[in-house]
Amino acid sequence: SLKIDQTAPTLSIAYHSHVLPPAGPTDLPLSLLEMGCSGRFELITHPLPGDQPLPPQSTLPCGLPPTSIDLKTEVKRQFLSDPAWLPLHDIDAAFHRFLKVSHRDVQVDKLLQCSPSPLHSGLSVVRDPTTGLLLDFTEVLLEDTGLSAKNSLSFQRQPGPPAESLRGSNTNFPFLPGGMEELSLEQIQKRTALEEDVDFESGLLQVPPGLKAGMDFSGKDATLAKPEVNLMTLLSSFDDIMTLEPEVVEQEVGGGGAEKAKLPRTNSLEDLGIKISRSSSPGVKGVEAKAKPPGEPESTKKWAIPVDISSPCLDFYKRIPNPAFKWPFEPDVFQKQAILRLEAHESVFVAAHTSAGKTVVAEYAIALSQKHMTRTIYTSPIKALSNQKFRDFKNTFADVGLLTGDVQISPESSCLIMTTEILRSMLYNGSEVIRDLEWVIFDEVHYINDTEVRAHLHIQTVMRRNHTSPPQRGVVWEEVLIMLPDHVSIILLSATVPNALEFSEWIGRIKKKHIYVISTAKRPVPLEHFLYTGNSSKTQKELFLLLDPTGNFLTKGYYAAVEAKKERTSKHAQSFGTKNASQSTTANQDKAQWLSLLHFLTSRQQTPVVAFTFSRTRCDDNARSLASMDMTSSVEKAEIHSFFTKSISRLRGADRNLPQILLMRDLLKRGVAVHHSGILPILKEVIEMLFSRGLVKVLFATETFAMGVNMPARTVVFDSIRKHDGTGFRNLLPGEYIQMAGRAGRRGLDATGTVIILCKKGVHDMADLHVMMLGKPTVLQSQFRLTYTMILNLLRVEALRVTDMMRRSFSENHRDTQAQEKRIRELKEVLSTLPPLETGGQLSDLVPYYHIVTELRLTASVLQRATLESVSGLKALSTGRVIVVNSNQHPNALGVILQVSSDSVNRTFTALIICEKGNEEEEGSSSNRAPPPVHTSALFIPEGPCSHTVQKLKPTEISGITVKTLKVIPDRIIDNYSKRQQPRFRHDPPGQAISTATQELLRLAEANPGGLATLDPVNDLQLKSVEVVEASMRLRALNDGLKDFNCTNSPTFTEQFARVQERFGVQEELDKLLFLVSDQSLSLLPEYHQRIKVLQTLQYVDVGGAVQLKGRVACQISCHELLLTELLFENALSSLEPEESAALLACLVFTQNTQVIPHITKTLQEGIKQVVAVAQRIGDLQRDCGIGQSAEDFVAQLKFGLTEVVYCWARGMPFAEIAQLTDVQEGTVVRCIQRLDEVLKEVRQAARIIGDSVLGSKMERASLAIRRDIVFTASLYTH
């Protein structure tokens, strides 16, 4: 039966039956029919022929709600009539039994399933333009109907299946990244075939293929052969006079109007074309030159726009009468300015001081997207921060979801909080979430280049010197920024960084959108920085102010601290003699200092205190040493006890009594706590929550606590200002110090924050303290590097090239392609207007002569540099040495050295030089004069009377060190010359010393007109390096070769040589610029070719760059992608049990060295050998392909220290027992197992792609085995 729903707006004709259970004797013959898309149903009460229900149709976007199907029928259908449920082993017998039980009809047409072809037309509504009444429907043809996620980057493509809407699929194309030009399918296919540039002036074909005659384009310029009588020339020169005034006015206004004023003056487009083409005409040239600057704003466009926050934003509520979100407080000026930009849908970079309130900007963006019914993604550098933000935003907005490696909560929410890696994967895999995305918020952007913080993120996953290390935040952030589509606006939240403007300029340039940069001038709560030297109850008040709230460095306080420390030390030394002055202190000394400081701070009500200690062991020791201190009241103790017990109650019985938990419970009751990566995640959360309530009075923490966790304290104490950064000990950088010190001072509670630096052994160096407190924070630097995953993900999609990604990275930000392309156009024009070269007759060898002379000058300058940088060369250039000066003003003139400057960086030589009368003054403009064309060694001899000058020479102006020396009196010569430079003594005769030296130089020049013998760099100066010897021999050969040229005899030689020089100079600059704008100049290009070579050798991609099966598998894997893929394809995991597989793969996520040797099964030992062998093979291959990392380093990344721990955990051993098997701290073990679960998921996905269901189910079992108890306890922030 067919029903037409008359109310459906698009007149859709559809039918869809509702399958009901078989009718009983008492049931009425009813059927339900869905009509159109409006959700209307109709009952069909008349009996159906043959008791058959209506056949279901798939014409509707969604089916009907499910109905209660008979359970017996369902079980029979699922388990008996579907062969997919057959057992894996003993298949034949099972199949025969299956045939007996089930009766199956052969349905051949089931094999012929075709997906419905897309509709090529749709209905469009025609309405009355005045009333809006519906008048008619018209059929319109639809464009791009064949687009899908498998062949297009466009947003016009059809949505994928619902199962892939969140994470996307690794066979999907990503959406087109913003700032990249969109290409059609045809263009993509053609582009590879048409890679070379077509020269549209001289490279066009004239005869079409298959035809005898063609088109002759050469006669086009004939009509314009006589520029003298060309009307356009007259018109354009008339324009110059006519448009003079308007042009000046328009330039003042700032509009690009010079061109606009002139365009209407031509009579037709054709004329305009002629006018532009006649660029050789001087009149038109002038017009063009004037018209260009205002008409080309593109090249000088600034993408980053700093926002002034010095004046209050008075019209805020007038401009936004109904804000999307309201706070119980009045927002600051910088927050209001950011909100105004968000309302205009602009992108912002907010660089504000710690605790200034950057989160307000994020909250407004979330509220705005909920108002617009779009989505926001919030990304943070660490998972712990994601969890905290989830709790905070959930309390504020309710509609918030969380996506991390192991947790997925409400993925359909309008605000999604996730780690940057997940967002990158969603972008590469074309997730449907991106369609609805309005904002992406990047928090804590200043960690983009902090390798150590990245080290804390994934169980210290950064391995220095490592080319295939686990994901680093910097590179992931850059990839995400490049891959974000055009409609998504960006919000970057950061601490104050010096180059926020430069970073924003880069983002703006690659995304082709303005970025508004908003910075705060000062902290909301100013800080006071002190030095503390006390170590007993007598000296506990020894606190010295070093930096006041206004930023003044007080040396008085510093010297007072030095005196206080010295007084005690000297008394000790007087009594017992000096001991070896080591920098370390004993545990008892530390304990005494901490006790005296904390008693002092408690008495001044300056708790809570965060004590930053750059060693996990020292954190624990310091906390334990405070056994005698109790800083909590009985009410607080009860609150801590109930909260702790309630939080720990979610653990299993045995896990509640872990040593770390018992120790922390005792410490917390006394108001002391420890926070570092070795602490169990659930304990860290308990500590954070108690700290934010003010119940933890002293928290010993490592640097990670300062990472974006909004938990300010009253006081911050630095246990030391030196830390180990993975390679050695160094002082804290200003950025690190500011970030940690910024935790002091709670807004609204404290007038100032207190920062204290402990002086344990002695007072720190004043210069070090000054740099650390007042130095500039580290600039944001690019961490962009190539990874195999990135290369494979981009090679999957023909329209995106890896070189495009490299060109847009922050590391290539120095490339000003627009300005360079503009300059290329100018140079090409200049080149076309240069007069042609005469290369006939005597001038036939002019071009080779130019090349020889150019090489000769380069070789001579190399030798000259080597000589001047050598000790023997500088020794030879002493007072009295006769030299050959070769500057633009004094070519090949003799001089004598009078003085040598002591500045080794910019060394100068004061010399007396002979010259023509009238050429004594230094010429400012002479530096631009071209060197003489004929390369000659003939010395300068004055034609008229000989004069002299005293000048400071640069090393490059000395072309030869002769073998001669003169006896001179330098001071007398210089004084006499200086005196005669004054106007009143200008006509005095030169002194005796100058006259003698000048006459002697002139005599030498006249005696040796062909050139004076010079010191040979190799034989005389004993410079024996290969470069110098080769350059010396080459110079000799070039000088000999010059004698054979005839062009120097031509009367027009000088003029023609100048032309050659000009033409080749322009050509060289053009070639250099063409290289700079090409992919060949990308700094990472050689490494890209090396990595492609590795992928081709391992058959991940074919010669044409198409991704093969192995490459598709590697795309699924985030760390050690090559190693893991090779292991899968070699079936290395097939012989192992699920527990053993998990234990073996732990080496990919664990990166610490351990002292305990694990005891493992024989199969695991074999597995480890195989992993090492594969890693060795990949390492050797990378080395052979040119990647600068040795195979030993590559293999050394794999650490098998937790193999036994993971094996025992997977087999069910309690956590308390596995903690005894290793010296690795509990928190690190937990996070390693959590990361391992992510790897197992990736392997499971990879097994699905390969088609290995056995391995897939094995990984699932391994994952289930490790997902238990304390390791996978849900976060307190999310539950």
Automatic annotation (TrEMBL):
SMART domains: DEXDc (SM00487), DSHCT (SM01142), HELICc (SM00490). GO terms for molecular function: ATP binding; hydrolase activity; RNA binding; RNA helicase activity. Its main location: cytoplasm. It comes from the Eukaryota. Residues 287-301 have a biased composition (Basic and acidic residues). Keywords: ATP-binding, Cytoplasm, Helicase, Hydrolase, Nucleotide-binding, RNA-binding. Residues 280-301 are annotated as: Disordered. It catalyses: ATP + H2O = ADP + phosphate + H(+). This is SKI2 subunit of superkiller complex. It comes from Gadus morhua (Atlantic cod).
